[in-house]
Amino acid sequence: MGRNLIAGDIHCHCSLLREALDKAGFEPERDTLYSVGDISDRGPEPLELLRFLMSLPDYRPVLGNHDLHLRDYLVSDILDGEWMASDGGADTVNAFIRNKVSLSERQEIGEWLSSVPYVRIEEKYIIIHGGVPKGWTMTELELIAALRPRPMGYAIAEDPASSPLWNRSYLQSAMAFEHGADISFLQPPLDTEKRVFIGHTPLSLPFISDIYRLAAVDTGAGHGKKLTVMDMDTLEYWQAGRG
Ligand SMILES: [Mn+2]
After folding, report:
1. Which CATH number does the domain housing residue 79 bear?
2. What is the pTM of this model?
3. % of the chain exceeding 70 in pLDDT
């Protein structure tokens, strides 16, 4: 049996990912790699990263908010203004143009991104980009896990299906609890034995809460800091990058 590893928000840092995976002793033919979303934007190697991830025998991502923008560009030619101006979209789009990515590869990547779920629920793990929205139970998460993003999914900004990609309240509650807040004032832990893995919120170190069954693994690779790869069972982790 191979190991199950999960990467934090990669943000086009293919070299950092490969360095962290090397440190972890990742064996692509044996191990499974998960990621918490936001593979897109901000980093230097968008095409290299997409090609590497799509070549892995067992890669299991979820969508991040940045990935929805890239997917909408590749599938529907939607160039969201805010994404282009301030979220790294312009560099990502330029990389596709500069690298003369063929129409067929562009379609292939778009279709592949369209197959990536918002939420992934497995026997021992739940993987979500942002977190569990307030008031949501396993029932809502299971419904969203069965959905695939609709065409122009990002353009429908109020689409409740995308709210787990943006949520931060679950992490904030878990952190407040670990700092001594009374749990009765906080968003309660999800009623599950599964471990919840999230990204989206850059932290200086991975954050673990046993009460919330939570592991937050974004350590800011998209902001010039570190990329974390974590063993999903032992919670041991390896990092690459500065910061
Ligand atoms: Mn994000």
Report:
1. 3.60.21.10
2. 0.95
3. 95
